[in-house]
Amino acid sequence: MSNPYLLLTPGPLSTTSTVKEAMLKDWCTWDHEYKAIVEQIRLQLLEVGCASKEHYTALFMQGSGTFGIEATIGSVIPSNGKLLILQNGAYGKRIEEIANVLKIPHLSLVFEANTQVDPQAVERKLVEDKAITHVAMVHCETTTGILNPLEAVMDVIKRNNRIAIIDAMSSFGGIPIEVEQLQIDFIISSANKCIQGVPGFSFILCKRDELIKCKGKARSLSLDLYDQWETMEKDAGKWRFTSPTHVVHAFAQALKELDEEGGVEARHARYRTNQQIVVEELTQAGFTAYLPRELQSPFITTFLYPTHIPFAFEHFYNFLKSAGFVIYPGKLTDANVFRIGNIGDVHAKDMERLSEQILRYVGVTKYEN
């Protein structure tokens, strides 16, 4: 059965038929073959993140990406710790909401949605407030598609001897990230993002010596990072509670396909091409990207509502859906915008077809002067 439309969203996203086919069998969570697949995935994730198994480990958490973020925030910060949250969008704000619910001492350094996190401002805050023990930042803020300066911010965090928690939900596997070289302590992503699997679990790459310090600190039974890891270590590949077996097999296939494509660099190049086509073609159609090119990630692009034509998002959305494309509504409160994702099993020819439909929507064709 073919898909009725292509998902141009930041996840869930369109997957290959072979990833879908991997879910057609049922699996036992205790089976040694299944657990061996889990262990293999853990090692492969370290390879994707350029992290050694001597200093890093990978583990899974059932649920969406937010489950992984909450598990990390709730497990690694001690009762006498304090979290600095770097915000320039809704997902940084969500980390603040998690800290509020878990009653973790924190403060937020807030930047405009169209402005990158400023490493110098981060350093000033770390120097000023010695009580801060941990810093959390979203790498690609999918509110807008802005890419925050990971290397520069990590340099500041480590120079000031703090622990780094990086939300790489929409970037891990889609852009090279050298986790060990950057000394990232905890980095979180999800099965249904740039690895191109399906929803069902998040994963966390952890610096081993920092994860070990988390024993007994968790503020939740099921979202306990250390206990989840300890179970996987002691009974190789076993999850503490029922694991999403079908999703795991789909993810194993997705990792195989990432390698066959040429790895993260090749996937990054494809996503970047997708994004460039969308921006160039929509600019021709009279749309304006919310971010300047130099701040834009290759994962999702935010566009302002056009003013040169009558425009209602629901009408635009339904028009594109009937043509075989699903896009995303905006997530800004101070501007009317919509978003187009560039990740998943999506290629240049798909973006060209999308562009043709958008040009058709505004009443022009690619061939008119």
Automatic annotation (TrEMBL):
What family, per the record?
Answer: Belongs to the class-V pyridoxal-phosphate-dependent aminotransferase family. PhnW subfamily.
Keyword Glycosyltransferase listed? The answer is no
Q: Which Pfam families match?
A: Aminotran_5 (PF00266)
Q: Binding of substrate: at which residues?
A: R339
Q: What is this protein called?
A: 2-aminoethylphosphonate--pyruvate transaminase
Q: Where is the Aminotransferase class V domain?
A: 32-310
First-tier enzyme category under EC: transferase
* Assembly notes: Homodimer.
InterPro entries found in the cross-reference section: Aminotrans_V_dom, NH2EtPonate_pyrv_transaminase, PyrdxlP-dep_Trfase, PyrdxlP-dep_Trfase_major, PyrdxlP-dep_Trfase_small, SP_NH2Trfase/AEP_transaminase
Query: A GO molecular function for this record?
Result: 2-aminoethylphosphonate-pyruvate transaminase activity
Where does this protein come from, organism-wise? Paenibacillus terrae
Q: Which reaction does it catalyse?
A: (2-aminoethyl)phosphonate + pyruvate = phosphonoacetaldehyde + L-alanine
* Record EC number: 2.6.1.37
Question: GO:BP terms for this protein?
Answer: organic phosphonate catabolic process
Q: Which gene encodes it?
A: phnW
Provide the coiled-coil residue spans.
none
Does Cytoplasm show up as a keyword for this record? no
Function noted in UniProt? Involved in phosphonate degradation.
